């Protein structure tokens, strides 16, 4: 298995160095806009890079965020940290990554794929917690935890006194706009979670190609789970 550091280096050599113009545009908009869009073909044909991108997108996109922070620090003397909420929008996936909406199942969880469908409904946009701040009730120390999923992650304990209870501090936390839409194809409809620049990217009736990561949404009371799609990029469907 390719190591995380090797993935970071592949992002440097195969994506970021040839995309200096896109990186400059990213920096010009940062932090108001935190999106860097990359067509899949820019990742090259090295299967040791493209395969983990499709099969382990959380790890591979995390390596991309680290690489972008390092690249910006080295080339532009700007302050972009890995913990900043950066969105790598991967588009134009190969046909081998296409899956019918009705066939998305357990084998596709936490992988990168593209599905086609019609936007059937949209909810109101609302803030979502992306960096949670927790304050120690004993010593006042504040610990922050980046939230990569919709399940709240908490720190292990106070790094200062190690004894106090940590309580969520909404005022010190950071948020991003988010919206849930529903994608339909035939008889099946699945919820899609969109954030940041994708919040207003679609409307009811739009036929779209959605690059997404299927997630399992569960509670603590049952082993059954619901499927949802985490939107990575959106384009108008080619058949539209």
Tell me, briefly, the overall form. Answer: globular
Number of helices: 4
How large a portion of the residues is in β-strands, by DSSP E? Answer: 25-35%
What structural class is derived from the secondary structure elements? alpha+beta
Number of strands: 10
Q: Could you give the order of the helices and strands? A: HHEHHEEEEEEEEE
- Spans of at least 5 consecutive residues whose pLDDT stays below 50 are none
- Residue-averaged pLDDT: 91
Rg, nearest Å: 19 Å
Q: What is the CA-CA span between the terminal residues?
A: 39 Å
Helix fraction, binned, reads 10-25%
Report strand order across the widest sheet: 3-7-8-10-9
Main sheet properties: 5 strands, mixed, barrel
What does this structure look like?
It is a single chain. By secondary structure, the chain is an alpha+beta fold. Helix content is 22%, strand content 34%. The chain contains four helices and ten strands; from the N terminus they run H-H-E-H-H-E-E-E-E-E-E-E-E-E. It has a five-stranded mixed β-barrel with strand order 3-7-8-10-9. A hairpin with a 5-residue loop joins strand 4 (126-136) and strand 5.
């Amino acid at each position: 298995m390719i190591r995380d550091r090797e993935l970071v280096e592949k992002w440097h050599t195969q994506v970021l160095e040839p995309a200096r113009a896109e990186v400059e545009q990213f920096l010009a908009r940062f932090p108001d806009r935190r999106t860097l869009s990359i067509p899949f073909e820019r990742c090259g044909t090295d299967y040791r890079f493209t395969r983990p991108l499709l099969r382990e997108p959380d790890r591979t996109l995390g390596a991309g965020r680290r690489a972008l922070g390092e690249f910006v620090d080295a080339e532009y003397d700007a302050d972009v940290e890995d913990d900043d909420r950066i969105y790598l929008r991967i588009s134009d996936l190969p046909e081998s990554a296409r899956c019918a909406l009705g066939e998305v199942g357990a084998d596709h969880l936490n992988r990168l794929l593209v599905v086609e469908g019609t936007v059937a409904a949209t909810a109101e946009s609302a803030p979502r917690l992306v960096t949670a701040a927790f304050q120690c009730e004993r010593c006042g120390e504040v610990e922050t935890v980046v939230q990569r999923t919709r399940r709240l992650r908490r720190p292990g304990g106070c790094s200062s006194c190690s004894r106090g209870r940590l309580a969520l501090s909404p005022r010190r936390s950071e948020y991003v706009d988010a919206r849930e839409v529903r994608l339909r194809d035939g008889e099946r409809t699945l919820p899609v979670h969109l954030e940041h620049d994708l919040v207003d990217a679609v409307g009811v009736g739009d036929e779209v190609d959605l690059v997404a990561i299927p997630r399992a949404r569960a509670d603590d009371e049952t082993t059954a789970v619901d499927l949802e799609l985490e939107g990575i990029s959106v384009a108008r469907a080619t058949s539209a």
